Amino acid sequence: MLNYRNYSTSSRYKNTTAIIFDDHRMFAESLALLVERMDYFDSVHTFSEEKELFRFLLNNESQRETFFFVDFYLLDKHCIPLINEAKRINKRIRTVIVSSVMNAATIKYIDSNKPDGFLSKLAGFDEVLACVTVLRDGQRYISPVIEKVLEDASEHAPVHFSKREVELLQYFYQGHSIMSTAERVSLSMHTIVAHRRRMMEKVKCKSMAELLTFCRKNGIVGDSETAR
Asked: Which residue stretches, if any, does this entry annotate as coiled coil (predicted)?
């Protein structure tokens, strides 16, 4: 386990920005204050609206090194599409997903997307500092409490859904029909039906209600407020 108390805050990162994005402004601003205490970054910015975030990224130097802290659950979706778009705009972004999620299936899904850092919301200043320092050295960081969940779950073989399947499941959970979902993801209705059938086979269930119940129970889909 990483001994994060050995890290120092003695040097500022030159030409480096920190961005905190969360639809809960109070959490974003609290984390920003924590990050500012490091005295590492030239600037620290908080955002709660996607349009404001992307406007900032587009208007600033695309090659400026940026540490991007983002909550996993955002309103009616998760942060992976947001991260992918941010990386498209700025190739030097280092992503740190911050979440209170403790469900093994959801943690494994997040980890499968290989964020540079994965912080628990239980983390204090020392651990946030450790995360930034490890990322600066070109390594990944995962909170010890999250690593423990992964270790405890390693003996079990969870049901694995692809990124596309998780996206579709979230739309189904929100009550979208096959037609509406197909329009939103630019796929044919036939393809959506095929995805749905394969997901039901994975879970060994016979109805969408059973599939969504399973996914909700395992933290794969959920409302932003309850999932946090």
From this structure: none
| b/e code 120-138 from CB counts within 10 Å (16+ = b) | bbebeeebbbbbbbbbbee
- Tell me the C-alpha to C-alpha distance, in Å, between residue 11 and each of 7, 31, 38, 39, 69: 11, 20, 9, 8, 20
Q: Which residue, chain included where needed, has tokens 């910015």?
A: 45
Task: Indicate the pairing of strand 141-142 with strand 117-120.
Answer: parallel
Q: How far from 35 is each of 8, 23, 32, 125, 142, CA to CA, in Å?
A: 14, 18, 5, 8, 17
Domains of the chain and CATH, by start: 4-153 (3.40.50.2300), 163-222 (1.10.10.10)
* CB-based contact 95:87 (threshold 8 Å): yes
The model's pTM: 0.67
> What is the CB-side half-sphere exposure of residue 156 using CA atoms within 13 A?
11
- Tell me how far apart the alpha carbons of residues 166 and 70 are, in angstroms, rounded to a whole number: 19
Cα gap 78→173, rounded to integer Å: 13
Q: Which of 90, 103, 112 is nearest to 18 (CA)?
A: 90
Cα–Cα dist 221/213, whole Å: 9
